[in-house]
Design a protein that fits this description.
With 247 residues, the chain is mostly helical. Helix content is 55%, strand content 11%. The longest helix is centred in the N-terminal third of the chain and has 31 residues. Helix 1 packs antiparallel against helix 3, helix 2 packs parallel to helix 9 and helix 5 packs across helix 7. It starts with a helix and ends with a strand. Strands 2-1-3 form a three-stranded antiparallel sheet, with no helix packed on it. A two-stranded antiparallel ribbon has the order 4-5. It has two domains: 162 residues, no CATH class; 56 residues, no CATH class.
């Protein structure tokens, strides 16, 4: 009974620290412009993710530490679950607070239109005449039924700007959370810190799904998971002294 009660309290507190970790990580992005939870050393050691994973489950393992109880298999599954929620939760909340201002700049102040109201331009390399043919074909399906003549439609579509706008609305990819995350991963830039000088070096921004960035994203996720188990490494003995858990 005591173990079940400990698990319930630990899950509640773990959920609270998970939520707090998400909010702090998103606030850090909004304030500094950097993904501090993605900070890594030589692209291999995900120190930011390790700390974030540990922070997200702090409330969970703190309960066991106070209760002087050793976690068992199921407890580790809860910890794993919280770390995954924290990892993807950061990006989902970031997506939720990402807006585009009237001057087409990203902001997190809820100014302008939400990012979900926009689409990816999928035809940047398509010649304008091919776009015009596509738009005309789609326009005829709609406007001829409404009484417009083919000449009126062709005259309207002589303006390249109108063609571009309509083409993007037809072929554009909706900015869903999935597409937002894919774009975010594929277009990330790495910031190298050498001494006191910081030089931003763009990598992996050639195309969506850049191999380097995806590998880094996977390492980041593993960092969250590994970090979530750090708190279980310590407990108290009978005299209240801290000691490592038995392996």
């Amino acid at each position: 009974m005591k173990r079940i009660l400990t698990l319930i309290i630990a899950t509640i507190l773990g959920s609270l620290t998970t939520g707090l970790t998400i909010l702090i990580a998103v606030a850090a992005v909004a304030i500094t412009g950097y993904y501090l939870h993605s900070f890594s050393i030589f692209f291999i050691f995900p120190i930011g993710a390790l700390f974030s994973g540990a922070a997200s489950t702090m409330g969970f393992y703190w309960t066991y530490y106070i209760a002087n109880r050793k976690p068992v298999g199921f407890d580790f599954l809860i910890s794993l679950f919280l770390s995954v929620i924290s990892f993807f939760g950061i990006y989902y909340v970031l997506y939720s607070v990402t807006y585009v201002s009237d001057d087409m700049k990203i902001n997190y102040d809820f100014q302008g239109e939400h990012i979900s109201n926009f689409v990816y331009k999928s035809g940047n390399n398509v010649p304008i005449e091919k776009k015009r043919l596509k738009v005309k074909a789609e326009a005829k399906k709609v406007f001829i039924k409404e009484g417009f003549t083919e000449k009126e439609i062709n005259d309207e579509l002589t303006d390249d700007a109108i063609v571009e706008e309509i083409y993007d609305s037809i072929t554009g990819i909706p900015m869903t959370f999935k597409n937002f995350l894919i774009d975010d991963i594929g277009n990330r830039k790495a910031s190298f810190i050498i001494g006191r000088k910081k030089v931003a070096v763009p990598i992996g921004s050639v195309s969506l799904g850049s191999t380097i960035n995806w590998i880094d994203f996977i390492i980041e996720g593993l960092g969250f998971i590994i970090g979530s188990f750090f708190g279980f490494y310590f407990k108290k003995d009978e005299n209240g002294r801290e000691q490592c858990l038995d392996t």
